[in-house]
């Protein structure tokens, strides 16, 4: 039975950077954000349900979802957000669980990693062989987020504080990758992890 690990972490903790390194080291990567886009592609049940809930106006002229319009509708309106996630969340979950099940049916030496930013919040941990959290110290996370998203300090702090804390994610994880150092330190953190998996 092949093994599949969940990978999570806070905003700008370095998940994408870690996944790139894991991929370079032969791991096979799945990504929940990609699945979230796939379940509302043209021709899907998901997109049909969104249209029947929000109307044809939510589509672009080419028939695909107008993501900007959708984001505007659900941004800071919890009722509208719930209408959307009531449609998408079960579809995403079904697909994620299906992939995990299929990997477990395989029998190879590949290490499979599934990135799910809200892994703990959505209770995915029981389905994985183990969960890895990417951890970064608050001040460094803040600096990296401000730089990457071109944000002022207050907006970046608000974004970080609206999420489950890094300390909590660290506590809940089976393995922790500390990304508070530079990229070469991250490389060696990941080498150690791969030896332990
Ligand atoms: P999000 O969840 O917001 O998409 P993420 O967890 O995938 O973010 P990354 O995009 O990998 O995080 O990293 C956030 C920023 O920090 C990026 O600009 C990245 O280049 C930078 N970064 C990541 N790790 C390091 C590191 N060890 N040293 C310096 N910069 C880093």
From TrEMBL:
InterPro entries named among the record's database cross-references: Depp_CoAkinase (IPR001977), P-loop_NTPase (IPR027417)
Catalytic activity: 3'-dephospho-CoA + ATP = ADP + CoA + H(+)
A Gene Ontology cellular-component term: cytoplasm
Biological process (GO), any one: coenzyme A biosynthetic process
EC number of the protein: 2.7.1.24
GO molecular function, one term: ATP binding
Keywords from the UniProt entry: ATP-binding, Coenzyme A biosynthesis, Cytoplasm, Kinase, Nucleotide-binding, Transferase
Location within or outside the cell: Cytoplasm
This protein's pathway: Cofactor biosynthesis; coenzyme A biosynthesis; CoA from (R)-pantothenate: step 5/5
Similarity field: Belongs to the CoaE family.
Descriptive protein name: Dephospho-CoA kinase
Phylogenetic classification of the source organism: Bacteria, Bacillati, Bacillota, Bacilli, Lactobacillales
Name of the gene: coaE
């Amino acid at each position: 039975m092949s093994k599949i690990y969940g990978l999570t972490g806070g905003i700008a903790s370095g998940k994408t950077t870690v996944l790139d390194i894991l991929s370079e080291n032969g791991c096979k990567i799945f990504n929940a954000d990609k699945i979230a886009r796939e379940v509302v592609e043209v021709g899907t049940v998901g997109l049909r349900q969104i249209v029947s809930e929000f109307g044809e106006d939510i589509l672009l002229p080419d028939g695909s979802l107008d993501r900007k319009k959708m984001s505007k509708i659900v941004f800071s309106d919890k009722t509208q957000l719930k209408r959307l996630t009531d449609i998408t969340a079960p579809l995403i979950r079904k697909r994620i669980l299906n992939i995990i099940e299929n990997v477990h049916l395989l029998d190879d030496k590949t290490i499979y990693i599934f990135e799910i930013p809200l892994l703990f919040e959505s209770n995915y941990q029981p389905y994985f062989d183990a969960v890895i959290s990417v951890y970064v110290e608050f001040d460094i996370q803040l600096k990296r987020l401000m730089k990457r998203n071109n944000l002022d300090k207050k907006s970046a702090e608000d974004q970080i504080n609206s999420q489950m804390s890094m300390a909590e994610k660290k506590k809940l994880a089976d393995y922790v990758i500390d990304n508070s150092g530079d990229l070469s330190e991250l490389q060696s953190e990941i080498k150690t992890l791969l030896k332990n998996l």
